[in-house]
Amino acid sequence: LITIGINEKEQAMMTMLATITSPSSTLKSTTTGYLKLHHKFSVSVSQFRHRRRRIHQTLVFAAASNTSNLVEEFDPEIPVERALTPPSSWYTDYQFHRCELDRVFYGGWQVVGYSDQIKANRDFFTGRLGEVEFVVCRDDEGKIRAFHNVCSHHASILASGSGRKSCFFCPYHGWTYSLNGSLVKATRMTGIENFALNEMGLKPLRVAVWGPFVLLKVTQDKSKKEEDIESDGSVVASEWLGSSVGRLSEGGVDSTFSFICRREYTIDCNWKVFCDNYLDGGYHVPYAHKGLMSGLDLETYSTTLFERVSIQECGGGGSKAGEEEDGFDRLGSQALYAFVYPNFMINRYGPWMDTNLVIPLGPRKCKVVFDYFLDPSLKDDEAFIRRSLEESKRVQMEDVVLCENVQRGLESPAYDKGRYALVEKPMHHFHSYDKSLQQLQGFLSGLVAEEKLEKLEFRDG
């Protein structure tokens, strides 16, 4: 596709243009050669740019057509009993990944942290979602705020990690922002015309808190004013969790917990592979998690589907409802596993709650962030905590092997689509829910039909 519409004259021009930048060429000979070539072919710079723009449009058109075709390869209306899984290209194609970021991750509420990270005034934490760098803080008045973590001057990242700050100071040129996002100091800007300090503040993001969770929305609601950027948690919960809010509250998900620790895993697989593994209705547990299997009664496994949420529940399988012979009981009498579309998992069992946040790092790589919370009555039981975390880590490392093997298989020419088992209804629900991708399909179809390409930006290949 790169050479579509390029004739031999223009190829020669591009070769000569590349030569201009070569250290081994002298400016005089290169300039003379270029002018002779320019005169010989009578191709103006503006004509060359016009030709390049047409190539650019052709590439965008081809990418849009391809992605639209990929979306259409899965029909969410076909029931699980007759459905084929999405094609392997959903897990490997770069353009599909790009569209997922724009239409799935940037459009809805995303969990990015927990409320204890910003418990006191001036606390902050940072993160990245796709290409969006963000910072969340509690300002001097106690208001929770979130911003793009990018300096308005020359785009340097402002803050990193987490902690406490009285302001955001750019390490590149010293511009300084208050915790409410306003620019309070712009160094060495004297004499610059039409420079308004109050127009160069940090770009805000919508933020909300529900239970222990901090949520962001990248795409702004045009009806929202900047002062309304912190959203009501109960309203957001209704939008984020739908009718499952009551069931999750009953399960103690929004209870008071003590935060214990965070662990992160970088996995060589598409983010959906990890989600699929979580959503197979316990199918893989007897074969891949022998230790976990001993603590669960899979005969009691049940699934409840909501709008954006699926909840899997299972009773304890050991003696005395999950308790092992030495009295160690990590899972308790009932385990609840809630998946919140598109990439957040809540695991509530015994005195524990842990969450899994899956962050896409590309079509073939993701990061999974585990946050562990414990009933406050056990926060000082170091032996119980240590053994519980060891058990959890063992299960996660078993899942890492499974997911990376699946990704390798998806990239093999031997596989395109598979079938669902009936226990995999949560996975089918995940694949079928994607209204954002359905909207994307309509958008791309219109793009291809009308060739509205002028305003699109084609990035990263």
Account of the protein in words:
- With 461 residues, this protein is of the alpha+beta class.
- It is built from 13 helices and 17 strands.
- A hairpin with a 2-residue loop joins strand 9 and strand 10.
- It is globular.
- The N and C termini lie close together (11 Å).
Features:
461 residues, alpha+beta, seven-stranded antiparallel sheet, 17 strands, disordered N terminus, disordered C terminus
| Structural class designation | alpha+beta
Whole-number mean pLDDT: 82
Distance between the termini: 11 Å
Can you count the beta strands? 17
What is the chains' assembly state?
single chain
Sheet of most strands: 7 strands, antiparallel
Radius of gyration: 26 Å
Biggest sheet, strands in spatial order?
A: 1-10-9-4-3-2-5
The geometry reads as globular
Please report the number of helical segments: 13
List unreliable stretches of 5+ residues. Answer: 1-6, 19-27, 440-461
Strand content: 15-25%
> Secondary-structure element sequence?
HHHHEEEEEEEEEEHHEHHHEEHEEEEHHH
Helix share of residues?
25-40%
Give the SSE layout.
Elements: H1 8-20, H2 27-41, H3 45-72, H4 94-105, E1 110-114, E2 123-129, E3 132-138, E4 144-148, E5 162-164, E6 168-169, E7 176-177, E8 183-185, E9 204-210, E10 213-217, H5 233-241, H6 245-250, E11 258-267, H7 271-278, H8 285-288, H9 290-293, E12 296-305, E13 309-316, H10 319-322, E14 334-340, E15 344-349, E16 352-362, E17 365-374, H11 382-410, H12 425-433, H13 435-450
Antiparallel strand pairs: 1-10, 2-3, 2-5, 3-4, 4-9, 6-7, 7-8, 9-10, 11-17, 12-13, 13-14, 14-15, 15-16, 16-17
Helix pairs in contact: 1-2, 3-13, 4-13
